[in-house]
Amino acid sequence: MLQEECKSGDQLMRQRHVLCTDIPVVLPLATPLKFHYSEWQSIVSCFKELGLVIVQGLIADAEQLEELRQAADAVVERTRKKQWPYKRTVGKQFPPWNDESPDLWGVQHIMHPALHQPAFAAFYFSTRMIELTGRLGGMCPEEDAMAGLLNLLVEPLEHQFALSWHRDTIKSNVDEEEERRRLSSKVQYGGVQWNLALYHDECLFVVPGSHLRTRTAIERQVTTNCTQAGIQGDGVEMPNGICAALAPGEAVFYDPEILHRGAYDPHHKRRTLHGAHPDGRADISQAAGLLQHFKPSGMYFADPAFINTLPPDSPCAHRMVHRIVDRAARGTALGYTECVQEDI
């Protein structure tokens, strides 16, 4: 049954390129954005149309939430003590990150076996996550889905910090025709990206529907004139932008090419899982968007110690890992490992 649903979702994605216009979507105040994970048809419809959807019920119970919180606190403490080198540092929006800044806004590779936190892999490869990301991405988990990134977004200790408005893999300085071409090419097999809040989170801002169209003149001005992450957190307003606020345990799924930005406040604790489930059918040239993150750490998914953290009763999880290891080898051999965004 799920296989047929995935095929139907894939057909919707193939049709999306005809909607690439610069007419923004203005949401009525009553537009529903939040659904229980069992309402998958409403979830998929909202995601396709608006480029984002908020989902409840992906964490099984209070015990699992507490387990994830404890694991998150442990890796943050280790990273702040400089005992874990893979982090996102204040002042830099895209990789590569380094130790030049003493403050951080994210921890990379939290499923790495060296961190000894199996709760993260258990959630990432859970049945609920695999099924829902498959439906959202038009992917059949048994055939198409790959393992991808799982990182942790946290509050800096000493800085207000905001990212600029951006699309994840389309540079802000491309002209309208190139932007339209890139958006159309990303329609197929773009995978699924998501944030899941372990505590209340009001850090993600998005422009609904912007994944389907080129930027308006005002949006182009905002994204090209404000291409530096703001250390003071003084983010620029974007017309029709909204905050994707999350209660503990809620997740927002969003298209990587939707116009979005993050804002970080040192006065509010943030422990938000930031993950992606890529599609193995995507053209190999798109591998750089993922592989750039693995350049410092290496492809640890091939490590037997990582394989041992996978759910033993999930052959699908093992296939997902096998696909990304194979894709990483092919992408690296072809040179698709460089950063795809400006270093801002």
TrEMBL record:
Q: What is any Pfam family matched here?
A: PhyH
Q: What is this protein's record name?
A: Phytanoyl-CoA dioxygenase
InterPro entries with a match to the protein in the record: Phytyl_CoA_dOase-like
